[in-house]
Amino acid sequence: MAEPVPGQAAATPADVARARAEIGPGLPAPLVALWKVKDGLATDAGVTVYPAGCIGERNATYDVTRCAPGFVLIGDDSGGRGFLLRAGDPCSAVFSSDLGDLGPEDFEVESVDLTS
């Protein structure tokens, strides 16, 4: 079960605006909706959905724009797999991939959407 990151309140409008500036207009709407409730999630199994304040840095670190154009890295499993959504697609499935190889041809579908 996903739980809020301990101590995390909703993302501030400034955090969301900064994330939009860093990621671009394709910031997935379901992720923004989550941030309006809690700024990131973590599960007991180590799955994390990144808070607004670090999503730009995470996407830059893994060079998502070049390696997986049209996708946004939204979290990871604390074991080398990342979770991605299609940029700008409010109904995007959640995909996973090895963070060392973010080629979309190797993505696996983890969930039909972020809410699920």
Account of the 3D structure:
This protein is an alpha+beta fold. The chain is built from 4 helices and 7 strands; from the N terminus they run E-H-H-E-E-H-H-E-E-E-E. The protein has helices at residues 13-23, 29-35, 52-61, 64-67, and strands at residues 2-4, 41-43, 48-49, 71-76, 81-86, 94-98, 108-111. A 7-stranded antiparallel β-sheet has the order 1-2-3-4-5-6-7, covered by helices on one side. Helix 1 (13-23) packs parallel to helix 3. The chain is globular, with a radius of gyration of 13 Å. The mean pLDDT is 91.
Identify the strand order in the major beta sheet.
Answer: 1-2-3-4-5-6-7
Instruction: Please outline the major beta sheet.
Output: 7 strands, antiparallel
The structural class is alpha+beta
Radius of gyration: 13 Å
What sequence of helices (H) and strands (E) makes up the elements?
EHHEEHHEEEE
**Helical coverage, percent range:** 25-40%
Strand content: 25-35%
Counting DSSP H or I runs of 4 or more residues, the number of helices is: 4
Cα(first) to Cα(last) distance is 11 Å
**Number of E-state strands:** 7
Keyword list:
single chain; 116 residues; alpha+beta; 7-stranded antiparallel β-sheet; 25% strand
Short description:
This protein has four helices and seven strands; from the N terminus they run βααββααββββ. It is of the alpha+beta class and 116 residues long.
